[in-house]
């Protein structure tokens, strides 16, 4: 075979191979995108099925938040995440939700904040069922420090004021309540510092520093109901103590829900609800719960023993 024919044949085989490879990749891409598209269609169908007609206005300036005998299952969940839970919190009160991992604390908090609709039971704000009320008007009255809060790649100022007009006095107050003021003072450009290292002159904060920013964001909203889902998990001892005092202070005028694994923190609260497998099994103040000798007592003793074991 002449050399030119061999060269052309090798080149032809390589070209065919590459084209075949990219064809297979494109087909695979189409298949993958098709799956996402199916998800989108299912999601749109599900939301339009749940869209409610003409919603009523939400009660303004709410002072009493309650869930009454609610049960809730996540879509596709094998069992109910929350069963027959009743609890309430008023302005001027700080309550705690405690319990082991997966007991339903975060789910109850989201239900109380009207982020989910219960399968059974009622969520009432100032005695009005929230299911028929306009969601935005409800959510405008809630500040939520989520367990998995978002680290926005924006400036420190925007991270705190997110979605609200900037007011310097309120910004300073929210920062100092959350202990974020010390974080901001340590930054070269203060409130203007960009909190993402992927950008020029951007910085990255530590986990505890981020947690303070998330708390400041919730305080800045200055809402009637503040829900804090493990807000002190990454804070140092001094930070945690200061934060709990700030929460207590905030609870003079607002309703505060604190989710915590550190049972000692329940002493700062008016009462705690103990969740076991999605049910409230005990409720009351710290001393009352200890005297019940139930799940709270058992978990508290476990934590206390850990400290006692330190030489
Ligand atoms: N988005 C979700 N989708 C499906 N199931 C979920 C979802 N979130 C939570 N669950 C389930 O609901 C139950 C309660 O979860 P939840 O997050 O409320 O517990 P928790 O008490 O807040 O736990 P932790 O102390 O770990 O934060 C768990 O069994 C969990 O598997
Ligand atoms: Mg949780």
From TrEMBL:
Transmembrane is among the record's keywords: no
All residue ranges annotated as the ABC transporter domain in the record: 65-302
Annotated keywords: ATP-binding, Nucleotide-binding
A molecular function (GO) term: ATP hydrolysis activity
InterPro entries: AAA+_ATPase, ABC_transporter-like_ATP-bd, P-loop_NTPase, Type_1_exporter
PANTHER family, per the entry: ATP-BINDING CASSETTE SUB-FAMILY B MEMBER 10, MITOCHONDRIAL, ATP-DEPENDENT PERMEASE MDL1, MITOCHONDRIAL
Protein name, per record: ABC transporter domain-containing protein
Phylogenetic placement of the source organism: Bacteria, Bacillati, Actinomycetota, Actinomycetes, Streptosporangiales
């Amino acid at each position: 075979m002449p050399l030119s024919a061999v060269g052309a044949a090798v080149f032809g085989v390589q070209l065919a191979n590459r084209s075949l490879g990219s064809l297979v990749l494109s087909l695979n891409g189409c298949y993958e995108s098709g799956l996402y598209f199916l998800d989108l269609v299912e999601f749109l169908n599900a939301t339009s099925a749940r869209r409610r007609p003409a919603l009523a206005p939400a009660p303004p300036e709410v002072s009493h938040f309650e869930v009454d005998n609610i049960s809730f299952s996540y879509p596709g969940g094998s069992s109910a995440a929350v069963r027959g839970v009743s609890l309430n919190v008023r302005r001027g009160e700080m309550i705690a939700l405690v319990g082991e991992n997966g007991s339903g604390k975060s789910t109850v908090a989201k239900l109380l904040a009207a982020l989910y609709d219960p399968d059974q039971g009622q969520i009432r704000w100032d005695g009005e069922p929230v299911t028929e009320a306009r969601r935005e008007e409800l959510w405008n009255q809630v500040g939520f420090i989520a367990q998995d809060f978002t680290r926005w790649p924006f400036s420190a100022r925007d991270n705190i004021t997110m979605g609200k007009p900037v007011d310097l006095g309120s910004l300073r107050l929210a920062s100092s309540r959350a202990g974020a003021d010390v974080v901001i003072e340590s930054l070269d450009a203060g409130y203007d510092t960009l909190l993402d290292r992927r950008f020029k002159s951007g910085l990255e904060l530590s986990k505890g520093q981020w947690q303070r920013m998330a708390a400041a964001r919730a305080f800045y909203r200055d809402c009637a109901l503040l829900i804090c889902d493990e807000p002190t998990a990454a804070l140092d001892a001094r930070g945690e103590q200061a934060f709990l005092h700030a929460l207590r202070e905030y609870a003079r005028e607002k309703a505060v829900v604190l989710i915590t694994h550190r049972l000692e923190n329940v002493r700062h609260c008016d009462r705690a609800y103990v969740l076991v497998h999605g049910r409230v099994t005990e409720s009351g103040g710290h001393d009352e719960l200890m005297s019940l000798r139930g799940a709270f007592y058992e978990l508290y003793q476990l934590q206390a023993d850990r400290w006692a074991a330190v030489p």
